[in-house]
Amino acid sequence: MPLNLNPFPTREGKSTSVPYTKQQLQEFFKQHDKDGDKLLSKVELKKAFDDLQSRNPGFRAWRAMGKADADGDQHISQQEMEALLDYAVGIKYPFKA
């Protein structure tokens, strides 16, 4: 019997994977603000990307900072969240449906 390497199983009673929506990711990132300061640090971002099962969460956190940290303070604020979400949505991390 051949090995099924498809990461998106068919409707044979198995679950499928779809990318997270922007709203789901927004809630996900909010949950990773562990100190409650309404800012995401690089450490918090790295943990978030690790929880999204990124193969390289440190790189993803660094890249997200480069894309979203407009004021260069090494934190993603609420005002910068939209750029972070656009970056993360573009990666298309799977959500198990």
Automatic annotation (TrEMBL):
Signal peptide: none annotated. The keyword Calcium applies. The keyword Calcium applies. Residues 20-55 form the EF-hand domain. GO terms for molecular function: calcium ion binding. InterPro entries: EF-hand-dom_pair, EF_Hand_1_Ca_BS, EF_hand_dom. It holds the Pfam family EF-hand_6. Keywords: Calcium. This is EF-hand domain-containing protein. It comes from Vitis vinifera (Grape).
